[in-house]
Design goal:
Helix content is 65%, strand content 0%. It is mainly α. The termini are far apart.
């Protein structure tokens, strides 16, 4: 199957699944990026090792994309191979990237005092204090 045929069938597969317009357009854009990376090589001939290199070396190291973006490309790759090309893809070799959990910064008592003292409107000051009190207990 040529890359043009893959794109055509992929469009049909996405319409069959009633993809949202944004997802439809986004998947097509990512597919074009993937095809451009592999040049003249047909997607059907691309190996798992080459896909790993695309995800890790090209997207992560060269383009410096965030883990969420790399996972999105990975989802597109999985759709292309598993749905459109009907091929078994070794997901253990192409795992989703673990996303870092953010640690939220907690304000010091001095910072909170400064913040609350800056609010002149009593109503808003009360709302801020109530909301802070709710989150402080969790």
């Amino acid at each position: 199957m040529t890359n043009e045929q893959v794109t055509k069938k992929m469009k049909e597969d996405m319409r069959m699944r009633n993809f949202a317009k944004y997802t439809y357009d986004s998947y097509l854009g990512k597919t074009k990026d993937i095809m451009k990376y592999f040049g003249e090589k047909q997607l059907e001939e691309v190996t798992t090792e080459e896909l790993r290199e695309f995800l890790l070396k090209y997207l992560k190291e060269e383009r410096k994309l965030a883990d969420r973006s790399i996972n999105y490309y990975n989802s597109v790759i999985r759709f292309i191979y598993e749905v459109t090309l009907d091929k078994v893809l070794n997901k253990k070799q192409l795992p989703m990237r673990k996303q870092k959990k953010e640690v939220y910064k907690v304000l010091t008592k001095e910072e909170l005092s400064t913040f609350f003292n800056c609010v002149d409107n009593f109503k808003f000051k009360t709302i801020f204090m109530l909301v802070y009190g709710l989150f402080e207990k969790t």
